[in-house]
Amino acid sequence: MNASLQTVSGPLPASAVRGPVLAHEHLALDLTRGADSAATLTPGHRAAITEELASLRAEFGLGLLIELTCRGMGRDVAAMARIAADSGVAVVAATGWYYEPFHPAELSRTSAERLARTLVGEIERGCGGSGIRPGVIGEVGSHGDRPSEPEARTLTAAALAATATGLSVATHAQFGRGGLAQLELLTAAGLSPDRVSIGHQDLLDDPAVHRELAAAGAYIAFDTVGKESYQSDRVRLRLLLALLESGHADRVLLSCDVSRHGYLVSEGGMGYGHLFRSFLPRLRAAGVDEEMIDRLTRRNPLRFLTGRDGADDGPPEPGGGRADGAPR
């Protein structure tokens, strides 16, 4: 039986995703709890976002986008559904809690078990009465080398909900730090490491940590590609090649983490397509072949979401294909 994904439009066979996957993006969010008024993607940006995704579908065959805006981040699953329908790109929505500065006040009084029940409710019945069900738990976060006590509870809740529902967990590791502690906590709560993606590892210039996470079975997310103010793509390329050369190609996920409107192409930013237009050509120039590119950009994220290698039913169609499997 073919593995299935839960998208904002309903279940989708993983084998229907014939083109690449963006493993960590945002389509609708609001992170203005601090002083950063630019950290938004609002209804006013929806047309530009839709146009970008439709263009990537036409040019590169973009088949799926994993949208990791969770509770407390301005999540709007109805907006995601409209963007998916209008762009032709399938979208997976998320649930969970971000890192501590974005936690609602009531989390300080709630056990991990009760938080897990909240997540399971969304996964089984949909977000906020919308009927739109999440297909992944994330981006559940921490900052620093070890999660704070509230972050430990929300990460534990994510692991409990994941084991109860069969979903995978994607984390936010602030500036790439704390990934080993996150994995320790998640697996201690019963989650298999191969259902975990540790976020923002391209911001951590520490190949030994990447190897240790991958050897444990977790996915390593190089998911801020193009964010040069945080890390240069030159360093990202070096770190990625080191991970591939150490034999961990099956544990890599790639994305750009568009998390503010200034990153949109319409506003002069790198856009969701920076991975395809800039970074992957540099990876090819470094000697990485198309089979490996397909593994990194399609087969790995599908396996992460489903936990099954059966997500891969053959090579992608030349030039990509529609998310529903029909020709473009």
TrEMBL record:
This is Hydrolase. The keyword Transferase does not apply. It comes from the Bacteria. One of its GO terms (molecular function) is hydrolase activity. InterPro entries: Metal_Hydrolase, Phosphotriesterase. Keywords: Hydrolase, Metal-binding. It holds the Pfam family PTE. Residues 304-328 are annotated as: Disordered.
